């Protein structure tokens, strides 16, 4: 790998960490950059390597968030455990399932997310919890399992889906949802890393190089999100969702 490619991937990873820390969607930047920069590498290796900077950046962002925001520990743990298991299962199937299988469904799901969020400007501005605490734990466990599986087998938009579910389904404000999503994302990344490592599909030297850039972007992004609060996170969330729609739609219907 040339120094030019390494620099390109590091810049992309830093920006991905910044975006992901604010509203999710860092995979929109980092994964395509790896595919472009490493055209001769097999897809499982790229997917596995992608998880290394992601887990470091997500951990740095989560640390920043929860120095300022108090998490619901039982709810977060109830989501993290199934998400870890789901991600391991998804990663184990990553080489067998064609990525094109998911793309049309993801496009329409993202469009629904964008329209719903756009039409409800009050959504996620303040916390308005739904259901009993016990029922919330059961719901987040199921969603964690499903989104974790998706993250392991495909990935782009995982953080965005987590934030949207926590805001619209549970009643979190955008800022707390983004912070909680980071902890769940740590779990999905860890599950995928374990699965990809067992099959030898991680380029650790490159992954750790990109991790430094991703962490730097994540720290800046999470600090900006905390300063701007839920209104800023909502705006970034919508922007990332629209970009995800454009990217996945291009890959699905045009390229």
From TrEMBL:
Main subcellular localisation: membrane
Transmembrane regions listed in the UniProt entry: 45-66, 73-95, 101-118, 139-167, 202-220, 232-250
Any one cellular-component term (Gene Ontology): plasma membrane
Membrane topology recorded in Swiss-Prot or TrEMBL: Multi-pass membrane protein
Localization, UniProt: Cell membrane
Keywords on record: Cell membrane, Membrane, Transmembrane, Transmembrane helix, Transport
UniProt-recorded name of the protein: Unannotated protein
Source organism (scientific name): freshwater metagenome
Taxonomic lineage from the root: unclassified sequences, metagenomes, ecological metagenomes
């Amino acid at each position: 790998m040339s120094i030019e490619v390494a620099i390109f991937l590091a810049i992309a990873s830093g920006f991905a960490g910044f975006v992901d820390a604010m509203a999710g969607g860092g995979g929109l930047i980092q994964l395509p950059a790896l595919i472009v920069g490493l055209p001769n590498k097999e897809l499982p290796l790229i997917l596995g390597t992608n998880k290394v900077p992601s887990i470091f950046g997500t951990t740095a962002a989560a640390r920043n968030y929860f120095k300022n925001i108090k998490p619901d520990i039982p709810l977060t743990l109830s989501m993290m455990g199934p998400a870890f298991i789901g991600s391991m299962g998804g990663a184990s199937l990553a080489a067998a399932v064609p990525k094109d299988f998911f793309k049309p469904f993801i496009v329409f799901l993202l469009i629904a997310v964008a329209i719903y969020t756009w039409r409800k400007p009050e959504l996620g501005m303040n916390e308005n919890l739904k259901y009993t605490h016990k029922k919330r734990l059961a719901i987040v466990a199921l969603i964690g399992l499903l989104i974790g599986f998706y993250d392991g087998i495909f990935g782009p938009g995982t953080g965005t889906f987590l934030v949207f579910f926590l805001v619209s389904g549970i009643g979190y404000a955008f800022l707390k949802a983004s912070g909680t999503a980071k902890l769940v994302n740590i779990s999905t990344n860890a599950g995928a890393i374990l699965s990809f490592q067992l099959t030898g599909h991680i380029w650790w030297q490159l992954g750790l190089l990109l991790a430094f850039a991703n962490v730097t972007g994540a720290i800046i992004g999470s600090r900006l999100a905390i300063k701007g609060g839920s209104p800023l996170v909502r705006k970034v969330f919508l922007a990332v969702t629209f970009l995800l729609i454009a990217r996945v739609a291009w890959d699905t219907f045009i390229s």
